[in-house]
Amino acid sequence: MTQADHPRELRIIPVSLPDEIRPGDSLSEKLVRALRHQKLSLKKGDILVVKHKIVSKTEGQLVDLNKIKPTAASRGWARRYHLDARVMQLALAQSKRVVRRKRGVLITETRHGLICANSGVDVSNVDGGSHALLLPKNPDSSAAVLHRELKKRLKLSLPVIITDSFGRPWREGLTEVAIGVAAMKPLHDYRRRRDPYRYALRVSIEAVADELACAAGLVCGKLARTPACIIRGFRYSPGRGTASELIRASEHDLFR
Fold this sequence. Notes:
This protein is of the alpha+beta class and 256 residues long. It is built from six helices and twelve strands.
C-alpha cells in the first residue's frame, strides 16, 4: 500500500451564492466573492464542485417554454401522463436518440453522450416554470474555462467538477454525476495493482469524479441554495482529464 492509498479525512465545505445567477454573469467572479464573503481561504489540493445549473445560467442555456410548439405526438404523450408537452418536445429536440419511452418516462442519449431523463432539460430551481434550463453545450469546456479563470483570479490551480442529478437503472432515487471535469483525472485505474491479499486486480477502475460529485451532493442538496462546494483532503491525480472519459464506449456497453 502506497502513501496515497492510506485513508484520509475529507471535508466538504458549502459555498453559497447570495445573488441570483443570470446569463452573462462571470461565474468565477461570483464564486470568488462568495468565498470572500464566507471568509473561506482555499488551499492547494482543494477541488471545486459546482452544479450545472449555475453554469448553464451564465451561459444563457435558458429556453422560453412559451416559444416551444409541441407536436401532436408530444401533446398526446404529455396529456396521457399529465406532463408538460413543451418540456417533452424540448427534451426530444436536445436528444441524439431515444433510449426508452414508457409509463411517462423519457430516457434519452444527449448530444454529449449522456444517458439521462429528458435530455437533462430541467424546470426546477429556474424561475417557477416559464423557462427550462438545458445542460451546458460542452460541460468539459465549461469546466476548463472556469478552472482557468479561477486560476487567474486566485493564483491557485483548482480542479473543477460540474455535476448533474441522474437516476440509475435498477436503483431508486437520484445521485450526482460528473458531466464536466477539468484539471484532474476522472478515473483511478487499479489494474495491475495487488490487493492486501496479493490478488492481482484486473478490471478495477474507480470513477472518482462521480464519487466526488455524489459527496458534494450531500452538502449542496436540492433546496439548500448552495450550488457549489469545496472538497478538501482528497488525493486526486492532476492532469487533462475530462468527464467524457466516464462515458462507456458503445463497443464495451452491454446494454445498448
